[in-house]
């Protein structure tokens, strides 16, 4: 490694918080599903910026759109209509069910969830202590509102004293356990239809419909967190399409804008009308740069049929892994939909990830025993073959 690069790593290690264990190489560029380090070593990127880069790295149309937008306009507040924002608001309404017409635009997944929490509160002003039900193993973010809806004690415990007590956790997939938690204050159910951070657990087939029916019966809002699952990751534009339900609110972020920070919370006009002017706002939300990034990202996803590719490649990977795991006693389970795939092992995975990295494949761990495969949806068949080969080699 050249002196400059080792200095750069030292600087990161010293000046960045200790929250992130750092790699000992520097990523210098990316192209499609590939990343390159300072020595030009090539890696197949099955992390994709934590399910962000669905259109891949450095897509030429994305680069072109970003260059043009930077030259034209980067920031104006939401009170000033701009072409890029109008377009993306329309696109989000077009790719979701017709009742969902209005979006609050923000900059991240956690902000899209925070907006949904406030939307629930604004719609339940008559209740003294509006309660939210969510699920064991669910992850909704790390700011204090979304963290209150996140189940894992590892994330919650240090901040417990500031987390809302008005959140209850039901068992994922068990409608009776949801029913047991409902009382006169219950206002909404938040769910991840495929639990991502917890190790890729898709909801059982009939569970989302049962949730929808329960919400209709009890007049509760059904809030679907599609931050990780959205924009083709699971082989559909959104995961609710797998289950044939329409949520009242959909939270989006991650892949929405091809790597430029953006979040969106879409709901009906009726729901958003319960907010009074000024009750929610965010400085950067809906800035023209992020909106232009989202517009081109959604166009690329549709034009290049990346959602269908995600479905087909995902099926191939999952069936290859299922086949392989029959004769492998280290693998406990293979789960997923589209290119959102988890392999649960009977042992810790850290060493396996290091080996994969040495063989040129970047994989993501979650918890101690699950490896996630979340490549850009543009990954080629040849790259898929290499990923499968490397997974076989490390699964010993
Ligand atoms: N919701 C889900 C389902 C997520 O997977 C994540 C992040 O992984 C978040 C919310 C939080 O998103 P962000 O990290 O952009 O705040």
Q: What features would you highlight for this structure?
A:
single chain; 396 residues; alpha/beta; seven-stranded mixed sheet; four-stranded mixed sheet; globular; binds pyridoxal-5'-phosphate
The shape, in one word, is: globular
Q: Are any ligands bound, and if so which?
A: pyridoxal-5'-phosphate
Strand content: 15-25%
Low-confidence segments, ≥5 residues, pLDDT <50? none
Give helix % range.
Answer: 25-40%
The secondary structure category is alpha/beta
Q: Radius of gyration, Cα only, in angstroms?
A: 21 Å
**Can you summarize the main beta sheet?**
7 strands, mixed
Distance between the termini: 31 Å
* Strand line-up of the largest beta sheet: 4-12-11-10-7-5-6
Number of helices: 15
What's the pLDDT, averaged over the residues?
97
How many β-strand stretches? 17
Written overview of the protein:
With 396 residues, the chain is an alpha/beta fold. Helices cover 38% and strands 18% of the residues. It has 15 helices and 17 strands. It has helices at residues 3-15, 48-51, 60-72, 83-94, 109-122, 144-148, 153-156, 175-181, 207-218, 240-243, 269-272, 288-303, 306-326, 350-358, 381-394, and strands spanning 27-31, 34-37, 42-45, 102-106, 131-135, 167-170, 186-191, 194-195, 201-202, 221-225, 249-252, 263-267, 331-337, 340-345, 361-362, 364-366, 370-373. It has a seven-stranded mixed β-sheet, sandwiched between helices. The chain has a four-stranded mixed β-sheet with strand order 1-2-3-15. The radius of gyration is 21 Å and the shape is globular. The structure holds pyridoxal-5'-phosphate. Pyridoxal-5'-phosphate (PLP) binds next to helix 5.
């Amino acid at each position: 490694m050249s002196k400059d690069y080792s200095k750069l790593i030292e600087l990161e290690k010293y000046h960045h918080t200790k929250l992130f264990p750092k790699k000992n190489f520097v990523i210098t560029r990316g192209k499609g599903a590939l990343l390159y380090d300072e020595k030009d070593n090539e890696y197949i990127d099955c992390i994709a910026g934590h399910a962000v880069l669905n259109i891949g790295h450095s897509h030429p149309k994305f680069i072109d759109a970003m260059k043009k937008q930077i030259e034209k306009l980067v920031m104006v507040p939401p009170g000033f209509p701009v072409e890029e924002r109008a377009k993306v608001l329309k696109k989000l309404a077009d790719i979701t069910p017709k009742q969902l017409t209005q979006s609050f635009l923000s900059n991240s997944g956690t902000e899209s969830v925070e907006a949904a929490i406030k939307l629930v509160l604004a719609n339940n002003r008559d209740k003294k202590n509006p309660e939210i039900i969510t699920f064991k193993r669910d992850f909704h973010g790390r700011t204090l509102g979304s963290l209150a809806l996140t189940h894992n004690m590892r994330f919650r415990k240090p901040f417990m004293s500031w987390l809302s007590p008005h959140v209850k956790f039901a068992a994922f997939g068990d409608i009776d356990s949801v029913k047991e938690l409902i009382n006169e204050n219950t206002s909404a159910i938040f769910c991840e239809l495929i639990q991502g951070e917890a190790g890729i657990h898709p909801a059982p087939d009939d569970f989302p419909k049962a949730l929808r029916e329960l919400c209709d019966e009890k007049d509760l809002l059904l809030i679907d967190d599609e931050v990780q699952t959205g924009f083709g990751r699971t082989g559909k534009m959104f995961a609710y399409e797998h289950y044939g339900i329409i949520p009242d609110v959909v939270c989006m972020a991650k892949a929405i804008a091809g790597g430029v920070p953006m979040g969106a919370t879409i709901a009906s006009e009726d729901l958003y009308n319960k907010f009074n002017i000024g009750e929610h706002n965010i400085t950067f939300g809906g800035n023209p740069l992020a909106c232009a990034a989202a517009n081109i990202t959604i166009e690329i996803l549709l034009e290049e049929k990346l959602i269908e590719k995600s479905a087909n490649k995902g099926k191939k990977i999952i069936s290859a892994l299922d086949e392989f795991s029959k004769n492998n006693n280290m693998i406990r389970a293979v789960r997923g939909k589209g290119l959102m795939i988890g392999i649960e092992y009977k042992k810790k995975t850290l060493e396996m990830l290091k080996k994969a990295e040495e063989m040129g494949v970047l994989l993501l761990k979650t918890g101690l025993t699950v490896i996630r495969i979340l490549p850009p949806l543009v990954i080629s068949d040849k790259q898929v073959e290499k990923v499968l080969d490397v997974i076989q080699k490390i699964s010993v």
